[in-house]
Amino acid sequence: MMKKLFSILFLGLFSLVAQCQTWPQQLNITYVKAPFNIQNIVMKNQGLLEKEFAKEGIKINWIPIKAGLNQVRGMAAGEIDMVAAMNTSTLLIANSAGNRIVIVDGVAHPDDTFAIVAKPEIKNIVDLKGRQIVGPKGTVLHHLLSAALKSSGIEMKDVKWVSMNLPASLTTLLGGRADAALLAAGGILAAEKAGFHALVKAKGLIETNLVLAARGDFAKEYPDVVRRVAKVNREALQWALTNKPQAIALGAKELQLSEEDAAKLFEWSHFYSDLTQKDIDALQNSQRFLLEQKMMNRSVDINTLIFK
Protein backbone atom coordinates (compact mmCIF):
# COMPACT_ATOMS: atom_id res chain seq x y z
CA MET A 1 0.00 0.00 0.00
CA MET A 2 2.79 2.39 1.00
CA LYS A 3 4.72 1.48 -2.14
CA LYS A 4 1.69 2.31 -4.28
CA LEU A 5 1.22 5.60 -2.42
CA PHE A 6 4.87 6.57 -2.96
CA SER A 7 4.54 5.70 -6.66
CA ILE A 8 1.51 7.96 -6.97
CA LEU A 9 3.28 10.78 -5.14
CA PHE A 10 6.40 10.37 -7.30
CA LEU A 11 4.39 10.42 -10.52
CA GLY A 12 2.50 13.48 -9.30
CA LEU A 13 5.73 15.27 -8.40
CA PHE A 14 7.34 14.30 -11.72
CA SER A 15 4.30 15.59 -13.58
CA LEU A 16 4.44 18.86 -11.66
CA VAL A 17 8.15 19.32 -12.40
CA ALA A 18 7.62 18.54 -16.08
CA GLN A 19 4.79 21.04 -16.21
CA CYS A 20 6.95 23.73 -14.62
CA GLN A 21 9.68 23.10 -17.16
CA THR A 22 7.37 24.02 -20.04
CA TRP A 23 7.63 27.72 -19.17
CA PRO A 24 10.72 29.88 -19.69
CA GLN A 25 11.83 32.20 -16.90
CA GLN A 26 11.67 35.15 -19.28
CA LEU A 27 10.51 36.15 -22.73
CA ASN A 28 12.81 38.42 -24.71
CA ILE A 29 10.72 40.16 -27.34
CA THR A 30 11.52 43.18 -29.48
CA TYR A 31 9.77 46.52 -29.26
CA VAL A 32 9.56 47.68 -32.86
CA LYS A 33 7.50 50.85 -33.20
CA ALA A 34 8.31 51.75 -36.80
CA PRO A 35 6.92 51.96 -39.37
CA PHE A 36 3.64 52.01 -37.37
CA ASN A 37 3.35 48.67 -35.58
CA ILE A 38 0.21 49.35 -33.58
CA GLN A 39 -0.07 45.80 -32.19
CA ASN A 40 3.40 46.05 -30.66
CA ILE A 41 2.74 49.53 -29.31
CA VAL A 42 -0.56 48.49 -27.70
CA MET A 43 0.91 45.28 -26.26
CA LYS A 44 3.74 47.10 -24.53
CA ASN A 45 1.86 50.17 -23.37
CA GLN A 46 -1.06 48.20 -21.94
CA GLY A 47 1.18 45.51 -20.42
CA LEU A 48 -0.76 42.79 -22.22
CA LEU A 49 2.04 40.21 -22.24
CA GLU A 50 2.85 40.89 -18.61
CA LYS A 51 -0.81 40.19 -17.75
CA GLU A 52 -0.98 37.11 -19.99
CA PHE A 53 2.01 35.43 -18.33
CA ALA A 54 1.64 36.76 -14.79
CA LYS A 55 0.40 33.40 -13.46
CA GLU A 56 3.42 31.58 -14.90
CA GLY A 57 5.80 34.21 -13.54
CA ILE A 58 7.42 34.78 -16.93
CA LYS A 59 9.34 38.05 -17.00
CA ILE A 60 8.78 40.08 -20.18
CA ASN A 61 11.89 41.84 -21.46
CA TRP A 62 11.13 44.41 -24.16
CA ILE A 63 14.13 44.97 -26.41
CA PRO A 64 14.04 48.20 -28.45
CA ILE A 65 15.54 47.55 -31.85
CA LYS A 66 15.34 49.16 -35.28
CA ALA A 67 17.33 47.33 -37.97
CA GLY A 68 16.19 43.96 -39.27
CA LEU A 69 19.75 42.61 -39.34
CA ASN A 70 20.13 43.43 -35.64
CA GLN A 71 16.99 41.43 -34.96
CA VAL A 72 18.53 38.47 -36.75
CA ARG A 73 21.84 38.84 -34.93
CA GLY A 74 20.03 38.94 -31.60
CA MET A 75 18.11 35.79 -32.44
CA ALA A 76 21.22 34.01 -33.68
CA ALA A 77 22.92 34.83 -30.38
CA GLY A 78 19.93 33.56 -28.41
CA GLU A 79 19.33 37.02 -26.95
CA ILE A 80 15.94 37.51 -28.65
CA ASP A 81 13.15 34.91 -28.52
CA MET A 82 10.49 36.66 -30.58
CA VAL A 83 10.31 39.64 -32.93
CA ALA A 84 7.07 41.62 -32.85
CA ALA A 85 7.42 42.81 -36.45
CA MET A 86 9.94 41.38 -38.92
CA ASN A 87 9.77 41.87 -42.66
CA THR A 88 9.70 38.62 -44.59
CA SER A 89 12.67 39.56 -46.76
CA THR A 90 14.87 39.68 -43.66
CA LEU A 91 13.33 36.42 -42.42
CA LEU A 92 14.07 34.64 -45.70
CA ILE A 93 17.66 35.89 -45.78
CA ALA A 94 18.17 34.74 -42.18
CA ASN A 95 16.83 31.24 -42.85
CA SER A 96 18.97 30.95 -45.96
CA ALA A 97 22.01 31.70 -43.78
CA GLY A 98 21.05 28.95 -41.33
CA ASN A 99 19.35 31.10 -38.69
CA ARG A 100 15.98 29.39 -38.30
CA ILE A 101 13.19 31.90 -37.68
CA VAL A 102 9.53 30.94 -38.06
CA ILE A 103 6.48 33.01 -38.95
CA VAL A 104 3.94 32.96 -36.12
CA ASP A 105 1.26 35.43 -37.23
CA GLY A 106 0.61 38.34 -39.55
CA VAL A 107 1.14 41.99 -38.59
CA ALA A 108 0.80 44.29 -41.62
CA HIS A 109 1.06 44.66 -45.40
CA PRO A 110 2.51 48.19 -45.34
CA ASP A 111 3.25 48.69 -49.04
CA ASP A 112 2.60 52.44 -48.76
CA THR A 113 5.00 52.94 -45.86
CA PHE A 114 8.24 52.05 -47.66
CA ALA A 115 9.77 54.32 -50.29
CA ILE A 116 12.85 55.60 -52.05
CA VAL A 117 12.82 59.32 -51.29
CA ALA A 118 14.95 61.68 -53.36
CA LYS A 119 15.98 65.26 -54.00
CA PRO A 120 13.54 67.25 -56.19
CA GLU A 121 15.88 67.22 -59.20
CA ILE A 122 15.85 63.42 -59.32
CA LYS A 123 12.74 62.66 -61.36
CA ASN A 124 12.96 58.91 -61.91
CA ILE A 125 14.90 55.76 -61.01
CA VAL A 126 17.28 56.19 -63.97
CA ASP A 127 18.41 59.50 -62.45
CA LEU A 128 19.82 57.54 -59.49
CA LYS A 129 22.68 56.19 -61.59
CA GLY A 130 25.96 57.30 -60.05
CA ARG A 131 24.16 58.93 -57.12
CA GLN A 132 24.58 58.24 -53.41
CA ILE A 133 21.74 56.36 -51.73
CA VAL A 134 21.51 55.53 -48.04
CA GLY A 135 19.41 52.92 -46.27
CA PRO A 136 19.38 49.70 -44.22
CA LYS A 137 20.87 46.53 -45.68
CA GLY A 138 19.07 43.19 -45.59
CA THR A 139 15.60 44.68 -45.18
CA VAL A 140 12.45 45.10 -47.24
CA LEU A 141 13.83 48.52 -48.27
CA HIS A 142 16.96 46.82 -49.59
CA HIS A 143 14.65 44.56 -51.59
CA LEU A 144 12.71 47.60 -52.81
CA LEU A 145 15.88 49.35 -53.99
CA SER A 146 17.07 46.26 -55.85
CA ALA A 147 13.68 45.77 -57.50
CA ALA A 148 13.34 49.43 -58.46
CA LEU A 149 16.80 49.54 -60.03
CA LYS A 150 16.24 46.28 -61.87
CA SER A 151 12.91 47.54 -63.26
CA SER A 152 14.83 50.42 -64.88
CA GLY A 153 17.73 48.33 -66.14
CA ILE A 154 20.17 49.51 -63.48
CA GLU A 155 22.34 47.31 -61.27
CA MET A 156 23.27 47.90 -57.65
CA LYS A 157 26.87 48.52 -58.69
CA ASP A 158 25.66 51.50 -60.73
CA VAL A 159 24.72 53.45 -57.59
CA LYS A 160 26.71 54.49 -54.53
CA TRP A 161 24.84 52.74 -51.75
CA VAL A 162 25.79 53.24 -48.11
CA SER A 163 24.08 51.01 -45.53
CA MET A 164 22.76 52.73 -42.39
CA ASN A 165 19.69 52.54 -40.18
CA LEU A 166 16.49 54.48 -40.82
CA PRO A 167 17.05 57.47 -38.50
CA ALA A 168 20.58 57.95 -39.85
CA SER A 169 19.29 57.65 -43.43
CA LEU A 170 16.74 60.41 -42.86
CA THR A 171 19.28 62.68 -41.16
CA THR A 172 21.80 62.12 -43.96
CA LEU A 173 19.24 62.96 -46.65
CA LEU A 174 17.97 66.06 -44.86
CA GLY A 175 21.55 67.18 -44.30
CA GLY A 176 22.27 67.06 -48.03
CA ARG A 177 24.85 64.27 -47.71
CA ALA A 178 22.86 61.84 -49.90
CA ASP A 179 20.86 62.13 -53.09
CA ALA A 180 18.23 59.62 -52.04
CA ALA A 181 17.31 57.54 -49.03
CA LEU A 182 15.36 54.38 -48.26
CA LEU A 183 12.76 55.54 -45.77
CA ALA A 184 9.70 54.25 -43.97
CA ALA A 185 6.50 55.72 -42.58
CA GLY A 186 7.25 58.84 -40.51
CA GLY A 187 10.58 59.26 -42.27
CA ILE A 188 8.78 59.63 -45.61
CA LEU A 189 6.42 62.24 -44.17
CA ALA A 190 9.30 64.20 -42.60
CA ALA A 191 11.30 64.18 -45.82
CA GLU A 192 8.30 65.30 -47.89
CA LYS A 193 7.72 68.22 -45.53
CA ALA A 194 11.37 69.20 -46.08
CA GLY A 195 10.91 69.34 -49.85
CA PHE A 196 11.98 65.84 -50.90
CA HIS A 197 9.66 63.47 -52.74
CA ALA A 198 8.86 59.76 -52.85
CA LEU A 199 10.43 58.55 -56.07
CA VAL A 200 8.80 55.14 -55.81
CA LYS A 201 6.93 53.21 -53.13
CA ALA A 202 6.81 49.48 -52.53
CA LYS A 203 3.17 49.28 -53.62
CA GLY A 204 2.95 47.74 -57.06
CA LEU A 205 6.66 46.90 -57.14
CA ILE A 206 7.14 44.40 -54.32
CA GLU A 207 4.73 42.88 -51.81
CA THR A 208 5.69 43.83 -48.28
CA ASN A 209 4.79 41.76 -45.27
CA LEU A 210 5.56 42.30 -41.60
CA VAL A 211 5.09 39.25 -39.39
CA LEU A 212 5.29 38.17 -35.78
CA ALA A 213 8.27 35.79 -35.69
CA ALA A 214 9.99 33.44 -33.29
CA ARG A 215 13.41 31.87 -33.01
CA GLY A 216 13.08 28.32 -34.29
CA ASP A 217 14.46 26.56 -31.22
CA PHE A 218 12.39 28.75 -28.86
CA ALA A 219 9.20 27.95 -30.77
CA LYS A 220 10.02 24.24 -30.64
CA GLU A 221 10.73 24.27 -26.91
CA TYR A 222 7.93 26.63 -25.85
CA PRO A 223 5.13 26.34 -28.45
CA ASP A 224 2.41 27.31 -25.96
CA VAL A 225 4.20 30.57 -25.14
CA VAL A 226 4.48 31.39 -28.83
CA ARG A 227 0.78 30.65 -29.42
CA ARG A 228 -0.25 32.84 -26.51
CA VAL A 229 1.90 35.73 -27.74
CA ALA A 230 0.10 35.39 -31.10
CA LYS A 231 -3.24 35.47 -29.25
CA VAL A 232 -2.25 38.67 -27.44
CA ASN A 233 -1.01 40.15 -30.72
CA ARG A 234 -4.49 39.61 -32.18
CA GLU A 235 -6.17 41.05 -29.11
CA ALA A 236 -4.00 44.16 -29.43
CA LEU A 237 -5.02 44.59 -33.07
CA GLN A 238 -8.70 44.11 -32.24
CA TRP A 239 -8.45 46.78 -29.54
CA ALA A 240 -6.76 49.16 -31.99
CA LEU A 241 -9.42 48.63 -34.66
CA THR A 242 -12.24 49.01 -32.13
CA ASN A 243 -10.68 52.04 -30.46
CA LYS A 244 -9.12 53.67 -33.50
CA PRO A 245 -8.88 57.29 -32.22
CA GLN A 246 -7.16 56.14 -29.02
CA ALA A 247 -4.85 53.82 -30.98
CA ILE A 248 -3.87 56.64 -33.36
CA ALA A 249 -3.21 58.96 -30.42
CA LEU A 250 -1.06 56.28 -28.75
CA GLY A 251 0.90 55.67 -31.96
CA ALA A 252 1.39 59.40 -32.45
CA LYS A 253 2.79 59.73 -28.93
CA GLU A 254 5.15 56.77 -29.26
CA LEU A 255 6.47 57.79 -32.67
CA GLN A 256 6.42 61.52 -31.89
CA LEU A 257 4.09 62.32 -34.78
CA SER A 258 1.09 64.57 -35.19
CA GLU A 259 -2.21 62.72 -34.92
CA GLU A 260 -2.86 63.66 -38.55
CA ASP A 261 0.31 61.90 -39.67
CA ALA A 262 -0.38 58.96 -37.34
CA ALA A 263 -3.85 58.54 -38.85
CA LYS A 264 -2.29 58.44 -42.31
CA LEU A 265 0.20 55.76 -41.25
CA PHE A 266 -2.56 53.74 -39.59
CA GLU A 267 -4.37 53.56 -42.94
CA TRP A 268 -1.16 52.90 -44.89
CA SER A 269 -0.26 49.91 -42.71
CA HIS A 270 -3.05 47.52 -43.76
CA PHE A 271 -2.97 45.47 -40.55
CA TYR A 272 -3.88 41.78 -40.62
CA SER A 273 -3.46 38.52 -38.69
CA ASP A 274 -4.20 35.47 -40.85
CA LEU A 275 -1.65 34.45 -43.46
CA THR A 276 -3.27 33.41 -46.74
CA GLN A 277 -2.12 31.60 -49.85
CA LYS A 278 -1.39 35.02 -51.33
CA ASP A 279 1.16 35.57 -48.56
CA ILE A 280 2.76 32.18 -49.27
CA ASP A 281 2.94 33.00 -52.98
CA ALA A 282 4.49 36.39 -52.16
CA LEU A 283 7.12 34.62 -50.04
CA GLN A 284 7.95 32.38 -53.00
CA ASN A 285 8.26 35.41 -55.28
CA SER A 286 10.44 37.22 -52.76
CA GLN A 287 12.69 34.20 -52.44
CA ARG A 288 13.18 33.99 -56.22
CA PHE A 289 14.12 37.65 -56.35
CA LEU A 290 16.47 37.43 -53.35
CA LEU A 291 18.21 34.41 -54.89
CA GLU A 292 18.61 36.22 -58.21
CA GLN A 293 20.11 39.21 -56.42
CA LYS A 294 22.38 36.89 -54.40
CA MET A 295 20.90 38.23 -51.17
CA MET A 296 20.13 34.58 -50.33
CA ASN A 297 22.75 31.88 -50.83
CA ARG A 298 20.31 28.95 -50.92
CA SER A 299 16.57 28.38 -51.15
CA VAL A 300 14.43 27.31 -48.21
CA ASP A 301 11.16 25.38 -48.01
CA ILE A 302 8.61 28.15 -47.41
CA ASN A 303 6.06 25.79 -45.84
CA THR A 304 8.51 24.85 -43.08
CA LEU A 305 8.78 28.51 -42.05
CA ILE A 306 5.15 28.68 -40.87
CA PHE A 307 4.72 27.94 -37.16
CA LYS A 308 1.92 25.46 -36.49
What's the short version?
The protein has 308 residues and is an alpha/beta fold. It is 47% helix and 18% strand.
Which properties best describe this structure?
18% strand, 13 helices, single chain, D-Maltodextrin-Binding Protein, domain 2, 308 residues, 5-stranded mixed beta sheet, 47% helix, alpha/beta, 2 domains, 3-stranded antiparallel beta sheet
What does this structure look like?
- This protein is an alpha/beta fold and 308 residues long.
- It has 2 domains: 24-110 and 208-305, Periplasmic binding protein-like II (D-Maltodextrin-Binding Protein, domain 2); 112-201, 3-Layer(aba) Sandwich (D-Maltodextrin-Binding Protein, domain 2).
- It contains 13 helices and 10 strands.
- It has helices spanning 2-20, 38-45, 48-52, 68-76, 88-96, 140-151, 166-174, 186-193, 216-221, 223-242, 244-255, 259-269, 277-292, and strands spanning 26-31, 59-64, 82-87, 101-108, 114-118, 132-135, 160-163, 180-184, 197-201, 210-215.
- The strands form 3 sheets. The protein has a 5-stranded mixed beta sheet, sandwiched between helices. It has a 3-stranded antiparallel beta sheet with strand order 3-10-4, with helices on both faces.
- α6 links the parallel β6 (132-135) and β7 (160-163).
- α11 crosses α12.
- The N and C termini lie far apart (45 Å).
- Mean pLDDT is 90; it is low at 5-11 and 13-19.
